Amino acid sequence: MTMTLAFGQDDFVIVERVETERKEGETGLISSSLTDERSTKTTIRNLHNFPIDVKMLDRLPVANHEDIIVTMLPATTKPTVTDLDDQRGILSWSVNLAAGAQTVIDFGYRVSWPKAMMISGID
């Protein structure tokens, strides 16, 4: 995982990202489609003795074919901005963290596609 922090790394801001779930499978009565579902939990802690503004970016896969369906999971923390700077799939969460506070951002998505279709980009 790569993070960009202005003016270098800040040792008083701790970011932990954990993949909480990863499921691949088949759906449909006769297994007509395949799915890939992923969820992460990102915890951001402010160890400073003053509040800070934090902006976290992540990406939602973007389908370029009508038979590929990408949905954000219901447990996802609502992003502050979707399609940041008109870039499809780029999500942003902006948080003001009080001194000593932490926040948790849950993010998950599901990609489904017809079983007969070969797709790339799912790793």
Structural class, please? mainly beta
> What value does the Rg take, in angstroms?
17 Å
Estimate what percentage of residues fall within beta strands.
over 45%
- How many distinct beta strands? 7
Model regions low in confidence, pLDDT < 50 over at least 5 residues: none
Which bin fits the share of residues in helices? Answer: under 10%
Please state how the strands of the largest beta sheet are arranged side by side.
1-2-7-4
Chain-averaged pLDDT: 90
Largest beta-sheet characterization: 4 strands, antiparallel
Total helix count?
Answer: 0
| Gross geometry | elongated
- N/C terminus separation: 15 Å
Helix-strand string: EEEEEEE
Detailed description of the structure:
The protein has 123 residues and is mainly beta. It has no helices and seven strands. The protein has strands spanning 13-27, 33-46, 52-59, 69-72, 81-82, 90-97, 102-114. The strands form two sheets. A four-stranded antiparallel sheet has the order 1-2-7-4, with no helix packed on it. Strand 1 (13-27) and strand 2 form a beta hairpin. The chain is elongated. The mean pLDDT is 90.
Secondary structure topology:
Blueprint: E1 13-27, E2 33-46, E3 52-59, E4 69-72, E5 81-82, E6 90-97, E7 102-114
Antiparallel strand pairs: 1-2, 2-7, 3-6, 4-7, 5-6
